[in-house]
Amino acid sequence: MFHQDSPNVAETVQDGDHFGYALASGDFDGDGKADLAIGVPHEDFAGHGGGGVVHVFRGTASGLSAAGDPLLSQDTPNVGSSVADGDHFGWALASGDFDGDGKADLAVGAPHEDIDGHDDAGITHLFRGTATGLSTLGDPAYTQDSPGVEGSLEDDDRSGYALAAGDFDGDGKADLAIGAPGEDISRGGDDNDGHVNVLYGSSAGVVADRDQVWHQAW
């Protein structure tokens, strides 16, 4: 059993952290053993209530190990946004080999991130798998204001609330579906109809140039 008071686990148990709220497994370092990412979206971090963190436990011959837990957050160097109250980084997780290099990558949703004055617009970070584990270098951090992403920033879109990875076009690279359940689609404004962006994998990782948007008819 793992928790935030387990040996070698970064951070400590606090009321309402919700350790394990989201989980994703993948071979992030390409050593043939699956690793585990654990979302703790209500973790108070760097002085910000509910900023959120993600723990990563490495697979070994004897099972999962918390030794060297890198503890990803929006305060980690090279991450494409900064930690703030109530961002809930780690609310959703998805693992897939988005660039086809044989190592799993990790998508992390922070659906209550405020973007350009829009409350709870949401953001999704992408961390690349390497021989030494997940890397924050080059995190593209997709929002609905990112070039090529369909939709527009609005309050309460909550992009990144749900994530799923799969090779939807069969090209050998995982693709990423990003849920934005608060997106307004129908006539009349603030209706929280919701939509899903699908960004496709490539040798450069997830790209938005073929973004598909799915929602219910109205």
From TrEMBL:
The keyword NAD does not apply. It comes from the Bacteria. One of its GO terms (biological process) is cell adhesion. InterPro entries: FG-GAP, Int_alpha_beta-p, Integrin_alpha, Integrin_alpha_N. Residues 137-156 are annotated as: Disordered. The keyword Repeat applies. One of its GO terms (cellular component) is integrin complex. Keywords: Glycoprotein, Hydrolase, Repeat, Signal. One of its GO terms (molecular function) is hydrolase activity. This is Uncharacterized protein. It comes from Sorangium cellulosum (Polyangium cellulosum).
